[in-house]
């Protein structure tokens, strides 16, 4: 949308400049037409250059987008590998912790039973 607005501004500005030149021209009609033709040629050249620059920007944006997409995919893949390795590395520790937790729960259960037996004797 901004590109259209910019191009429209160029065209309207060029038309306004052309009309102003015709109305305030100190030169003859032949000279004015020659100047107008030169101005038109310059404007065409500038519009072509602007179009080329816009296409270059568009192509650079597309390239950056593709590269970013590839980088994100590679990062995601690397993270999956790292997480799976981490899970594999902590598995023995996790199992040891679970066994210790079961042992603690068993000890607590034994303590509760011994306390219940002591309380019943009293």
Structural commentary:
This protein has helices spanning 2-23, 29-121. By secondary structure, it is mainly α. The protein has one domain (2-121). It is rod-shaped. 0% of the residues are buried. The mean pLDDT is 85.
Number of helices: 2
Give Rg in angstroms: 40 Å
Strand segment count: 0
Domains (count)? 1
Q: Can you write the helix and strand succession as a string?
A: HH
Low-pLDDT segments, ≥5 res: none
Shape: rod-shaped
Strand content: under 5%
Helix fraction by DSSP (H/I, runs of at least 4): over 70%
CA distance, first residue to last residue? 89 Å
Which structural class is indicated by helix and strand composition? Answer: mainly alpha
Quick structural gist:
This protein has helices at 2-23, 29-121. It is rod-shaped. It is an all-alpha fold and 122 residues long.
What is the secondary structure topology, with strand pairs?
Blueprint: H1 2-23, H2 29-121
Key structural traits:
122 residues, mainly alpha, 2 helices, rod-shaped
């Amino acid at each position: 949308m901004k590109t259209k607005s910019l191009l429209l501004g160029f065209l309207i500005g060029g038309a306004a400049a052309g009309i102003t030149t015709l109305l305030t021209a100190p030169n003859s009609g032949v000279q004015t037409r020659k100047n107008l033709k030169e101005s038109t040629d310059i404007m065409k050249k500038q519009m072509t250059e602007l179009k080329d620059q816009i296409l270059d920007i568009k192509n650079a944006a597309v390239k950056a987008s593709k590269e970013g997409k590839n980088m994100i995919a590679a990062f995601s893949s690397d993270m999956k590998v790292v997480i799976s390795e981490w899970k594999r590395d902590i598995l023995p520790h996790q199992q040891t912790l679970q066994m210790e937790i079961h042992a603690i729960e068993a000890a607590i259960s034994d303590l509760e039973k011994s306390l219940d037996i002591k309380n019943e004797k009293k």
